[in-house]
Amino acid sequence: MRQQVLTNNFMNRPPLLTSYSFDHETARKELASAIIMHEYPLSIVDHVGFKRYSNALQPLFKVPCRNTMKAEIFKIYEYQRGKTMSLVVSNASRLAITTDMWTSSNQKKGFMAVTAHFIDDSWTLQSCILRFIYVPCPHTKEVLCDQLLNCLMDWNIDRKISSITVDNCSTNDAMIDLLWDKLDSASLMLGGELFHMRCCAHILNLIVKDGLDVIKVGIEKIRDSVAYWTASQKREEKFEETVRQLNVTSTKKLGLDCATRWNSTFLMLQTALLYKDVFIRLSKRDAQYNSLPSEREWGFARDVCQKLKFLFKVTELFSGTKYPTTNQCFPNICEIRLELRDWLHSENQVIREMAKRMVEKFDKYWSVVHGVVGVSAVLDPRYKINVLEFYFKLLFPTSYKEEVDKVRALCYKLLKEYQCPSSMMEGIGDSSSQSSSIDEESLSKYDVYMLRESKRMFACGDWSNGMAGLTELCNGMAGLIENIRV
To answer: What pTM value is reported for the model?
Structure first.
């Protein structure tokens, strides 16, 4: 049916009379897209109110049944999957994989999320969810390995992997070892030397959680206080009334933390500290409220929050998904270690004890990640080799040259990887096939780049802009490393 409709696309233009042709198939696709986008239940198509609403908008549109909508949604899924697969397979860059387990809040079922990260031809970081699948219990290393391997082979990317980043736990370690045995090691970057990466944000979470155990009792009391005054609407109203009585200007809402994520604990403490006087006043009005922290515990929480502000910002940076994080890690990891060293000499005993625990955990994981993040920092035009020398001199006064040489050696290995791609990976970047061996001229160019004055620019984005002083060689190497998620 052809209709005439008024359109007004621009605020400063008068309405235009245009022709419109109703297409039942297009309308059905848009309904399926809306169900996907807003997570509407399929039963919405059975709702009388929705049918009446649809009929009022367009009497010609016949609302389809659930099965029809389910089939339409699967069509959209297959179309989008095909588009994504074409993008992933055709891209010359290696893929960095991240995987994590999620638990549904209502059914307590485990799901595996597998995401691929790569830098496309326009030097934009792309992230694609390859699979989000239910994994039945028990979540053993064999079960997790099989699910991940099936996903990689289904997408035909098992020979294009640069690294796999997972949370730090014994099951994941065993799963990665098992996966290693099932993949062709010759197709892996550097023979798999960078295959297993541990999530920096997760490691930082473990480090800070160990430190927070020092004031565990105080945190529990604050958590119980927040839980008590948010347990019912009546208590929330009483809390808000007391806030007004004391003229507290903050508008932040109380919120419980997630026990497994320290940054949520930090936010809970930070907000609770704003309402310290409110909690004290309410303890005098409500005899059932018996979890008020002592003045000493409030003081500990305040001191700890002051110290953790920097770590909170770093955690947010590490958790970014729309930009490369590897090149940001090295200077921030070094700054964290320097901060912890200062905390060890704090006049506050609680801060000293917290720092001691955090340093033990930090040193345990430092050697695992510092190689690849060091290389990434060198390839960042803003940092280069200078940043390694600066921080290593502070952290390793007597052996900093050896530490710099370790990262330099890894850089040379990557240079060889870039110039001598395996038969499975014909190359990354436009120039990968121009040389079949690592030569002195390449090493010389690379050394000149590393020693050249650092440039103020954004990593990744400016490498496509004539590389602004960055050699073509390092441009290609960056494609190998910058998509790795740490």
So the answer is: 0.72
